[in-house]
Design goal:
The complex is a heterodimer of chains A (about 260) and B (about 375).
Chain A lengths: L10 E2 L7 E2 L2 E4 L2 H8 L4 E3 L3 H13 L4 E4 L6 H13 L3 E3 L5 E4 L3 E4 L8 E8 L3 H12 L4 E6 L10 H10 L5 E7 L4 H12 L3 E7 L23 H10 L4 E2 L4 H5 L4
Parallel strand pairs in A: 1-3, 4-5, 5-6, 9-10, 9-11, 11-12, 12-13
Antiparallel strand pairs in A: 2-3, 7-8, 7-10
Chain B lengths: L4 H10 L7 E4 L12 E5 L12 E4 L2 H11 L3 E2 L2 E2 L3 E5 L3 E12 L4 E7 L14 E5 L8 H11 L3 H20 L2 E12 L4 E3 L3 E4 L19 H8 L3 E4 L4 E5 L2 H13 L6 E4 L6 H13 L4 E12 H15 L5 E8 L1 H10 L3 E2 L3 H12 L4
Parallel strand pairs in B: 14-15, 14-16, 16-17, 17-18
Antiparallel strand pairs in B: 1-6, 2-3, 2-6, 4-5, 7-8, 7-10, 8-9, 10-11, 10-12, 13-15
Helix pairs in contact in B: 3-4, 7-8, 8-9
The chains are: A alpha/beta (about 260), B alpha+beta (about 375).
Chain lengths: ~260, ~375
């Protein structure tokens, strides 16, 4: 993150206050970090059993952007956390995500720096490494990114596809949008409906899990076909109906975006 | 975590939800005192057992044993019946439906209830289902139950019992970290009882650490999936013959999809995660090789993962296991050229992109190179 240009002003680890890591001072509480160093956002890596606590601490310290990288947080913790964050006007990204990156400006996350390039394509993805794969292909094809949001692979997430789409539609630096979806839930169907009504910018999609069997959780807690719900066919069809081209191969996303 | 009917009913009973009397048996000869007349119900982690012949009535001890003998060992949609549940037969006058799930889009629990129970809820017309989101922080309020009861149009006494059951179900849903609590049918009996005819319960795997008492429940895993689970490896066995291993759930799914487009069929979903620890790589390959694939397709997009360390782990694993299964690998990441050298030096195929790797895997498998 430091290498990418992010101003990391403080670390927080209870009991480690007073230490420094890579020149960054460490505090015992978020409140202290905010007071002493004027931190205005937080990225959370703490283990799943303590993640809700850490997020609420950040919200209570007045932060309005919290990125949660941690995976395997119980769903019920997120059922409590997400509406709470909203009531405090805090935006949460994740959990179970690689974070958010604006090439040339800052990164809050764990995405590899070298695959990015400044540009005008906004990326929204439920996945980690698959995002790297697609972003890398975009960069090689000359399509830089305005911002890339890894929204997370869990069923309950802080910022969903529709909310991220709304942000990109408003963002002047974004001219086109890439959606990377997967099986499970109805976020792609919701997104397709939203695009049909409210998005003027060109959108290209990819959907992972076309060959996934029903009833099995494919690694991500959210990636599961339940009954006849959450299938790749349903998502591909919803995108097609909304006029959104869907790439067959991950590498095709860059091609479908047209000339840079 | 999924629960068998009798296990779910034990938990329901703990929360004061009325359930029929019953005993579980895994051997017909051991049955001595079933609650006669009874229903003999196959215990499997899959729906549709009634239609498959997994639920039968019995009048006497002898008949209970005979019917149990028939049902035990049956195959129901790929699941072998290991246990039967012998349950008191209910004199049912009406079947209702009650369910609690998580609505992902709303980020809230969703309560569903219907006076048309006993069939799959998907088959019930939407206008016959009461649906209401429950704000998690506020909890289930009495007005929601009142609205539900007026929708269901039940007599007062029955309605009060249903409301009480829904309240208890919600308590269970929250305290047990459930993804799904479903009572279908919720039976109204001739003698005025309201009682859970069936019970479905799924608890969030991520919350397992809060419920250690459920850690050893039998899940619907193959023996190899169980072994992988115990080692903390994300692994699913599939129908095809090509062993697929990649890093990250999305990329592993995409690799299987690309392979399919190239005419191959994946036999495994193995997510290596963010590791380049040679020991972990080796453990993953051990599982993969036990799945007996005809060829292995490895796809790694490493960010900070060191490609050469992964390659060394693969080399070590293959040498230790003396396997002759061919491997087609695509590894991107730090030191990827060195990784390719290592892989080629031990006779493996290394490609630049995942599309090339999938194509080559299909070609090598059919003896084309």
């Amino acid at each position: 993150m430091l290498e990418f240009g992010t101003k990391v002003v403080a670390g927080v680890t209870p009991g480690k206050g007073g230490a420094t890591v890579e020149g960054v001072p460490v505090y015992d509480s978020v409140k202290e970090a905010v007071l002493r160093r004027k931190a205005n956002a937080s990225i959370i890596f703490v283990p799943a059993p303590y993640a809700k606590d850490a997020a609420i601490e950040a919200i209570e310290a007045g932060l309005k952007l919290v990125v949660i990288i941690t995976e395997r947080i119980p769903f019920h913790d997120c059922l409590e956390l997400m509406p709470y964050a909203r009531s405090r006007e805090c935006t949460i990204i994740g959990p179970n995500c690689p974070g958010i990156t604006t090439p040339g400006q800052a990164k809050m996350g764990i995405m590899p720096n070298h695959i990015f390039k400044t540009g005008d394509a906004g990326v929204i993805s439920r996945s980690g490494t698959l995002t790297y794969e697609i972003v890398n292909a975009m960069t090689q094809a000359g399509h830089g990114q305005s911002t890339c949001i890894g929204i997370g692979g869990d069923p309950i997430i802080g910022t969903n596809m529709v909310e991220a789409l709304r942000l990109f539609e408003r963002d002047r630096g974004t001219k086109r949008i890439v959606l990377v979806g997967e099986i499970g839930g109805t976020s792609e169907e919701d997104a397709a409906e939203f695009i049909r009504r409210h998005v003027s910018k060109g959108v290209v999609a990819y959907v992972a899990g076309r060959t996934a069997p029903p009833g099995k959780r494919m690694g991500h807690a959210g990636a599961i076909i339940q009954g006849n719900k959450g299938t790749a066919e349903s998502k591909v069809k919803a995108f097609a109906d909304a006029g959104v081209p869907v790439a067959e191969y991950p590498a095709d996303v860059a091609r479908l975006l047209g000339p840079p | 975590m999924k629960f068998l009917e009798y296990q779910a009913k034990e938990i329901f009973a703990r929360y004061g939800i009325p359930v029929p009397r019953g005993v579980v048996a895994s051997n017909a000869e051991d049955i001595s005192d079933p609650p006669l007349p009874c229903m003999v119900k196959a215990q499997v982690l899959v729906g549709g057992r009634g239609k498959a012949g997994g639920i039968k009535a019995a009048e006497s001890l002898d008949e209970t044993r005979a019917v149990s003998r028939q049902i035990l060992g049956m195959d129901i949609h790929g699941y072998r019946v290991k246990q039967v549940y012998l349950e008191e037969r209910l004199d049912i006058t009406k079947e209702l439906y009650v369910g609690l799930t998580i609505d992902r889009s709303a980020r809230e629990p969703l309560l569903m209830a219907s006076a048309t129970g006993g069939m799959e809820i998907e088959a019930v017309p939407r206008d016959q289902i009461f649906m209401e989101h429950v704000p998690t922080m506020a909890g289930l309020q009495p007005y929601v139950l009142r609205t539900m009861l007026s929708f269901l149009e039940l007599p007062k006494d029955t309605g009060d019992r249903v409301a009480d059951i829904v309240r208890r179900s919600y308590e269970l849903f929250r305290k047990e970290d459930a993804e799904l609590v479903e009572i279908n049918p919720l039976a109204v009996t001739r003698d005025g009882r309201v009682i859970a005819g069936d019970a479905k319960l799924v608890i969030d795997d991520n919350a397992e650490y809060r419920h250690p008492e459920y850690a050893n429940l039998d899940q619907d895993r193959t023996p190899l999936e169980q072994e992988a689970y115990e080692k903390g490896i994300t692994f699913i066995q599939l129908d095809g013959d090509i062993g697929v291993i990649a890093n990250g759930a999305g990329l592993t799914m995409a690799t299987l999809d690309v392979l399919n487009l190239k005419g191959g069929r994946g036999g495994t979903f193995l997510d290596l995660g963010g590791t380049d620890d040679p020991e972990k790589v080796k453990q993953a390959f051990e599982i993969l090789i036990k799945a007996n694939p005809s060829i292995i397709l490895l796809n790694i997009f490493g960010g900070i993962t060191k490609a050469d360390t992964v390659a060394l782990g693969v080399q070590q694993a293959l040498e230790d296991m003396h396997t002759r299964i061919p491997v087609v690998a695509r590894i991107k990441g730090v030191n990827e050229d060195r990784a390719k050298e290592i892989l080629r030096s031990i006779g493996m195929y290394a490609t630049e992109t995942m599309e090339e790797a999938a194509e080559l895997a299909v070609k090598v498998k059919s003896g084309g190179t």
